[in-house]
Amino acid sequence: MNINNAQMTSVHESKRNFLKYIFSGSIVALFGSILYPILAYLIPPKQREVIVSNVKAGKLIDIEKDSGRIIKFGRKPVILIRTSKGDLKAFSATCTHLDCTVQYRKDMGMIWCACHNGKYDLNGRNVSGPPPRPLDEFKVIVQGEEVFITKKS
Amino acid sequence: MKTFWKKYYDWINERVMLDDLVEFMGKKYVPVHRHSIWYYFGGVSLFLFIVQVITGILLLLYYKSGEETAFESVQYLMSKVNFGWLIRSVHSWTANLFILTAMIHMFSVFFEKAYRKPREITWLTGILMFFLALGFGFSGYLLPWNELAFFATKVGTEIAGAVPLIGKPILIFLRGGEEVTGATLSRFFGFHVAVLPGIFTVLLGIHLILVQRQGMSEPLGIVSEQGKELKTMPFFPNFLLRDLLLWLIVLNIIAILAVFFPWELGKKADAFASAPAGIKPEWYFLFMFQTLKYIPAKLWIVDGEVFGIIMFAITGLLWTLVPFWDRKSSRGERNRLINYIGLLIVIYIIILTIIGWTS
Amino acid sequence: MKTNLLIFLFNVFTQITFSQLKVNYCFECHENIGDKVAESFKKDVHKEKGITCAGCHGGDAASEVLEQAMSKEKGFIGVPKGDDISKTCAKCHSNAKIMVKDFNSILPRNQYESLVTSVHGQLSNTGKERIVQCTTCHQSHGIVSVKNPTSPVYPINVVKTCARCHSNATYIRAYNPSLPIDQLDKYRTSVHGIKNSQGDVKVAACSDCHGSHDILSAKDTKSKVYAINIPNTCGECHSNSQYMKEYHIPSDQVKKFSKSVHGVALLEKHDLGAPACNDCHGNHGAVPPNVESISSVCGICHAINASLFSSSPHKKAFDKNKFPECETCHGYHEIVAANDELLGVSPEAVCSRCHKENENPKGYIAAQEMRQLIDSLENYEKYADSIVTEAEQKGMEVSDIKFKLRDVHQSKLQSRTTVHAFDVVKFKETVGKGIEIASVSAAEGKKSIDEYYFRRWGLGIATIIITIVVIALYLTIRRIEQNQSK
Fold it and tell me: Up-side HSE of residue C368: CA atoms within 13 Å toward CB?
């Protein structure tokens, strides 16, 4: 009777312990599955955040006269041009014909699309070739040494 | 093992007298009866609020308020940040579930007449928190600065602006100007993360302390049905563990919703674009929105919209003040009228929400 | 005033009706005094039809007495001035009763209306009259039928008639400073112009393309020479095999052109940037482009292709063999949108026409390799596209990858240009860039899809964990309550 009782208690005890282990183990797992996404979330991603209101295009002295460069503006390319007179201009660098990326041609003094020889003048107007409409213009702001490009509002 | 935890417990106990609290909780009992299930909705609402606080703080790490950055930062959060999609979807889904459970909690309290003396203040703080929750929903909806939110806010603030006399100043105050602009976004952001949470936390504190001090209300009929000897269960651990169990299930439901129905971002708001077709407010505003649609443009000499708003304001006020005019319940008598009013309101809200949803 | 006009009209009417029967005393007197006008009127088609001077000038031609014949009572108006000139002509020429019944004429009767609405119907610089009156081209006295070789509007002469004003820089400048004045010179260099000067009346002269009374500006959409209408205008003659028979040239150019990439763009999409007949063959100096000039003609628009071709090894070989440049591969009137199938050594490709496997293995291999390159770029793009689409359908955010795919598209477009250098290394470079971006995009797309499954697996695992906790918690609660009830 006594033995039986003790046995019962030990079975009871082991059952109880088993539940305890399951319970505490699963709680640990639960916290893990909640904390893992949160901790992963806290680690900043490699790619920098997108700031599209304005983009720093570099220092004014680094931008040669009579040159052009492509600047990533959010998810769109923008072409920044410094004319031979020293004026700064910026346009969307996506050709209005078939979405190729345009470039500045020193020899022509024009914006040029390599895909189908589309040409734009330095006001973004489509002057020759297949482009059906002008390039969208962006605003260039010079603050001290720095050159910024912003959306034209 | 025991001694290890005991050491820390004793250390804290010596300083803040934990024993008193444990004793208090041990003595607290929750009535058990056929309406007990409704007791859980308060707890679930609390849990959802905690989820909102945590995910809200997490979102703050990446969210950038401002006309030019709000949409982009949410887009970035959704696409680039690890589990950003999960945090945002959980926040959005929980927001909706929170309002739903808070609503259920409120109506259950109303039908049980648990607001009667001595729990008038608990009811008042609860109702105020519910209104704040609607404010949370309305302000938070705009923050991603997408097309739908932009126009919903425009319409919503316009309705507020239709209130006579104070309407126009309210509209200017909410929008931060005549139009919905970046200034509106800044304000809503401020309301959503600073003003509302501050007030809400104070109210929640009062609400919870009162619930703990006064215990759960027993429905009027139950006392007479079961006689003096009410069946009860200890608040700790029985009720609290049951609460926890339910919270876990709710958490799982949120996770499933977030993964299978991720919250969409939509198109970026453009003030000059024409409003998209079928613009609708969030579901919890739908019944009011739909009602305003049905009221004729002119009622006698009053503007239909103004009439509707005033009616809603009066109803809201009466609803808030129900513990003070429902004298019968406070005296412990049955008041069937309250049930009929509540039922009418529930049916009205459900029907108009369905009409608004499907139209 | 009104009554005067009525009398005048009545007189004109009666005089025209009865002038055939009457003697023309005006003419007799004026001839006797040696009036040059009378001299030229001698051969006038109107005189032949029996119309007297009074037909236009009013008065009474049947009266021998000068004062009576040229009296206002008889409706004499003297020499019509300004717009009255054309109106005088229109009195009969726009009147069906007179033209058809009295003179049995089949001349069109809308000439005056056409003139008034034409570019020549605008007010002249004096502001008092239209630029051109009937007499400007047809003369006043001595008007003869257009079929008469002495007529100023006879096909051989009409070019000079138009040139009287249109080759006069001072005159044209007053109306349209941007209008060239060398049309006649150019015309004389064209096949049309040369044949015209040799007396061929069948070839096109000014009025055949521009219209006669109804001439409109080339910018007017109703004009016969508006870009979209040009193929039809040229086709009026060139599509008529009967008409073209003696010149031994085909008559299916317009038909072929309409099906070509240019024709579809111009005629169906109304893309005014697309070339019409004149953009390749010239307007007034219309000649067929010859073998060497083809690439410069096409190169007006396809500049990069033309310059790449000119510096390619093909240039020399084509010149030596007298192959027309672009045309050899692309055809001419029936140019279809060039696709990748033109390249390579498959039966529909053009390279193997010359580069036979055993005769010219170097070119054969190069063509084969370039085709393989562009095909693989196409396949890479399609693959990347399908991956990204799948990721998108799974609700993943792929706008960044889609942005990258734009560059693949660009590299594909550029490779189709680069191919005209016929340089495998250069071609490989352009295509390689695209392939690289495409494979990167595809890899990112795959990652996105993996992420999709990761989310579901993560949810599954979390659900299992939560379920276990819930069950364990439930059992714990039951145990606690069992213990309490003991």
Answer: 9
Q: Give the CA distances from residue C258 to residues C236, C255, C265, C280, C405, in Å, rounded to whole numbers and listed in that order.
A: 14, 5, 9, 15, 34
Interhelix angle B240-260/B84-112, nearest 10 degrees: 130
What is this structure's pTM? 0.65
How buried is residue C426: exposed, middle or buried, by Cβ count under 10 Å (0-12/13-18/19+)? middle
Predicted interface score ipTM higher than 0.95: no
CA distances from B259 to B78, B253, B254, C392, C396 (A): 13, 10, 9, 15, 11
CB within 8 Å: A23 and C473: yes
| Inter-chain residue contact B245 with C484, CB threshold 8 Å | no
Determine the longest span between alpha carbons in chain A, in angstroms. Answer: 109
Option in B73, B75, B81 nearest A45 (CB): B81
pLDDT tens, position by position, C125-174: 777 888 888 888 888 888 888 888 888 889 888 999 999 889 888 888 88
**Beta-strand runs (E) in chain B:** 29-31, 232-234, 298-299, 302-303
Residue C462 sits at the chain B interface (C-beta within 8 Å): yes
**Residues of C in Cβ contact (< 8 Å) with B238:** 477, 480-481, 484
Chains with at least 3 CB pairs less than 8 angstroms from chain B: A, C
Chains that touch A (3 or more CB pairs under 8 A): B, C
Q: Which amino acid is at C34?
A: G
pLDDT digits (tens, 9 = 90+) for B27-56: 888 888 888 889 999 999 999 999 999 999
Q: Which of B294, B320, B319, B322 is nearest to B307 (CA)?
A: B294
CA distance C58 to C14: 10
Residues of chain B contacting residue C400, judged by C-beta atoms under 8 Å apart: 79
A153–B contact, CB cutoff 8 A: no
- Give the whole-angstrom CA distance, residue C260 versus residue C244: 22
Residue indicated by tokens 């005296």? B331
Q: What angle do CA B90, B93, B96 make, to 5 degrees?
A: 145
Distance of CA B261 to the CA centre of its chain: 22
